[in-house]
Structure formats: structure tokens, C-alpha cells
Amino acid sequence: MSAPVPLYQAKAEFFRVLGHPVRIRVLELLQDGPRPVRELLADIAIEPSALSQQLAVLRRYGIVVSRREGPSVVYELAGGDIAELLRTARRILTELITGQNELLAELRGAEAAAQ
Amino acid sequence: MSAPVPLYQAKAEFFRVLGHPVRIRVLELLQDGPRPVRELLADIAIEPSALSQQLAVLRRYGIVVSRREGPSVVYELAGGDIAELLRTARRILTELITGQNELLAELRGAEAAAQ
DNA sequence: TAGCGAATTGAAGAATGTTGCAAGTCGTGA
DNA sequence: TCACGACTTGCAACATTCTTCAATTCGCTA
């Protein structure tokens, strides 16, 4: 192979690709099955070209695949485990946010006490 | 709460935070348990200040926590599920890379046939 | 309490990523 | 084969993120 990319770098790159609001929304929509661009566009209110750019990123990394169906283009998740990753992420996020809220509550309490 | 951040945006932000080579390496090292900065520094060959910057990012998002132990500062993973997320990511990545290699092999074959 | 090692912070410039618009491709039906 | 809808691509302006280096903080001990 040409470039022996270290694994940790590939991993970082992978997460970075997931780290964009539009791309995440696309992946979440695709969890329920294949969808034409037209529908994605209806759910995510952005310019067609902006969506296309982000779809191109997901495609370039092999996270989604696309095929033409007559006049429209249909996208779907490439691997079966992406959905699981998103679920795990959601769980962690819930934990983190809960933790932050507790912390926030504590801080508020301390603040009030200090007044 | 002050800002009603949409969930998909929080999720994207979370992935983006994971999407950095140094941060990923730190998280992988911390999977085996708490470690002082000094040790992280020994494993990841970068300047102390650069590591500190990235640790600060992880801390800011509540992904790791730090505490001072005498002369050194010890870091550890904040939530229990981060390790699982990393494992899932590794599995997906393995799939993706395998898929890409197969594709590459096909392309090479086709190329050779076309010559 | 002066000094040293360990780690963090601040700030500026460099590098990357994102957005928006204009132009281009590809099917399909008139 | 012209025209139109559905997408994609190229590119320049703009925004964010990273790196680097100097300055600073915090414990500890001589």
C-alpha cells in the first residue's frame, strides 16, 4: 500500500468525518433505510449544493454509498455497524450531558450559597 | 438551560472532539487506566504544551477528568462507555479499510486487464 | 523562601474546513 | 434533440482549528 497511515490517525479522521451537523443528520436519516437526495433535502433544510458537498465527504470515506435510480440518486449506509456507533454515541452523550447538568446544578447551588 | 442546542449538533461536536490524532491516542492510553501527563508525554512524542492543549479540549467536553497528585497531574476517562465507543469505531474502521482494500484490488485488476 | 520540575495558559500565524454561487452532468419526457 | 428537474463540481471568501513559543501557575524541597 502507498501510505502506511497509523491506525490512530485513521480513527481520528473517521471521527472527524462524523463530526459535522449535516453529516450526522444524514447518517441518522439513513439509519431507517436508503433515501433519495430529494428526501434528505426536504428533512435537512439547506442548499442542494451544500448537502451534496457533505454527501461527497461521506462517500469519499466509504461511509455511505450512492446509486442512481432513474432521475434521482439514492444514498444508503455502507456498513452495518454505523448505526450501532451512533447508538453508542447517543448513550455516551446522554451520560455526559446529564453529568454536566448535575455539575451545573452544584455550581449554581454553591454560587447561591456564596452570595 | 441557556442554549437549547439541537441533539444532532451536540453529537457532531462530540465526534469532532474525538477527531484528532493526539486526542485519540490519549483516549486509547487512558483505556488501560489513569495516567499522569508525564507518561502520556512519554508515549506520544509531542511538546508538553501541545499535549496540554488537547487535554484541555477533552476536559472541556467532560470526556476526561484530571486531578493533581503531588507534583504530577493524573488523567482518566470520565465515562465508562468511551472505551466501548472506541471499540465499535475500531470494528467499523476495520470493515471500511477491508472494503477499501478489496475495491483497490479490483481496480488494480481492472487496470492491469486494460493495459 | 528561592528555585526547580511539571503542567497549563495566552496569543499569533499557519493550515484546514465550510459555505455559497455559478457552471456543468445526467436522465427523461415533450 | 431541446429543455427541465435532480444533483454534483469548482472555486473563492470566510471561519475554525492547530501549532508554536513565551509567560505563568502550582507543588515540593533545599
Describe, in plain words, how this protein is organized in 3D.
The structure is a homodimer of 115-residue chains. Chain A is built from five helices and three strands, in the order ααβααββα. The first copy, chain A, starts with 6 loop residues before the first helix and ends with a helix. In chain A, a hairpin with a 2-residue loop joins β2 and β3 (72-77). Chain A is globular, with a radius of gyration of 19 Å. Chain A has two domains: 1-79, Winged helix-like DNA-binding domain superfamily/Winged helix DNA-binding domain (Arc Repressor Mutant, subunit A); 80-115. Chain A is an alpha+beta fold and 115 residues long. Chains A and B meet through α1, α2 and α5 of A and α1, α2 and α5 of B. The structure holds a DNA duplex (30 and 30 nucleotides).
Keyphrases for this structure?
homodimer; 115 residues; alpha+beta; Arc Repressor Mutant, subunit A; three-stranded antiparallel beta sheet; 5 helices; 3 strands; DNA-binding; transcription (chains A, B); DNA binding (chains A, B)
